[in-house]
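Two entries, shown back to back:
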Amino acid sequence: MKKIFYLLLIFFLISSCKKEEITTEEKIKDSIIADTNNINVSILIDLSDRIDPSTNPNPAMPYFQRDTEYIKAIEKGFLNHMKSKRIITYDDQMQVFFNPEPSDPKINDFTKELKVSFDKNTSKDYFASVEKRYFEIPSYIYQSAIKDGKYVGSDIWEFFKNKVKDYCIKGDKRNILFILTDGYMYHENTKFTEENKTSYLTGKLIKSNNLNTSDFKNTIEKNKYGFVKANDNLSNLEVIVLGINPEKGNPFEEAVIKEYWENWFKDMKIKNYQIKSADLPSNLEPIILKAVAGK
């Protein structure tokens, strides 16, 4: 009987140890999964004449100033994310893009300054440095573009076709792309049509397609209007469009613009996206912060 008792005791102790070992391994595994919440944030800025305070004035707040405040909110969300992590898990980055690049060569230097990355060797002083850069540099960029006055448009379609995968998507990170634009898409070097789909969208096109009634969705579906698909599978990219600003005269213009973008994203298998109007930054900041936090 004693032998049986000792055998049962040994078996119980071994089982307990294995259970504790498995539990510990699971805890470590869960900790690793929780700590690999690394993000890759990109900002694509449309420096077309939409930012011109003379061409597109707004008494409440000029659109270029709204953009700079949106960018500050994105940076704030990024730094909030970093502060929520343990230093040993840092492997995150944020950058700004233009397409095409502005003619001012200084802007290339500015974009280098706005490309920031955090790793386990990042010092605490780096937080203040990033905050300072994103507070000052965007204003310089917009003022430079306005002063230059040569608005060449923004080739967003070409960016999605040829650059978005290389520039904005990292396999081991959560990839978030913010696009600051009024929603219209046009560039003289990338203007073409495939059947009824186009690589561009202008107020003139919306009007010519008779998308100025409450039945615009059926018109779009019936005639297969929309953007030409620029990429096949961008399911690992989240996109937030900020600044939709329709021309006056068509009460359905804004909804048409959003419909074009939504259908385009769906065609490219982008599952997580938001399309927001050019609202005051104080109204959009909570949305931006939630988007970066993944809430």
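entry 2 starts here
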Amino acid sequence: MSPAGASPLRIAISIATAGRPDILERVVGLLDRQVRPPDAILVCSPDQRDIDRIAAAFPQVRAMQGERGLPRQRNRLLAEARDVDILLFIDDDFLLGPDYLATLERIFAGHPDIAMITGRVVADGIKGPGLSVDEGLARLASAAPATGADLAEVYNGYGCNMAVRMDAVRRHRLRFDEALPLYGWLEDMDFSRSVAPYGRIMRARDAVGVHLGAKSGRQPGLRLGYSQIANPVHLMRKGTCSWQKGLAQIGRNLVANLYGTVRGEAGIDRPGRLAGNAAAIADLVRLRLSPSRILAM
């Protein structure tokens, strides 16, 4: 924890987790590497066993149980972050570079017009079979310095690592959309665009991290494939995703799943995702498409 009065901003790290206690324990343990320590660490899981384990290993962590589903768990974390200025959301398989929090503090303190910051992901295992913690640490250590501007404006934060100014969240009662169930595909875009009217959303070059892309605990390919169609349509209808971006997102997913299925891509259930895409398109034609339909799959 930071000494009292050491910083004008109180920064907390929040982690929604489910079914990955070993990785979670490693990720939380590695937070000791931060040059600028967090003022609080919040963890939310639907499984009491995860809560008991992390609380026993790290007494300083505020561990809580929440309803299953990433948006629901992140809303619980928002509600618990009553005494912080900046809340950083990270996935339970995201590794922070040692200067990550120091970079956040510098940027948020120096740019009051910024409402959200997302970092530079130097390796992302979600695009393949995933990375181990040790592989992720090696990628962090060998990451080449980025060139170009310190800050770049982006449409939305990347949910595995995005920090929000809590003043805007509290004042405008912003929340994650609980109509996006389970893994909450595109919940980061929806929340980011809810924040966007109240400040800029930026990617910080020097806030570096690695997303392991762990496959355990993720929803089956069929469900994710359905969400890849249903969730963008839901966001386009409510106005937190432009039609141009939403249709481009759907197109990219369809092409990737079709190509991966034909090629026999390892590490990702492309056939399952493609079947989910097809089921969602069929429901769209029948006028019954809804993100919640994955709960019956």
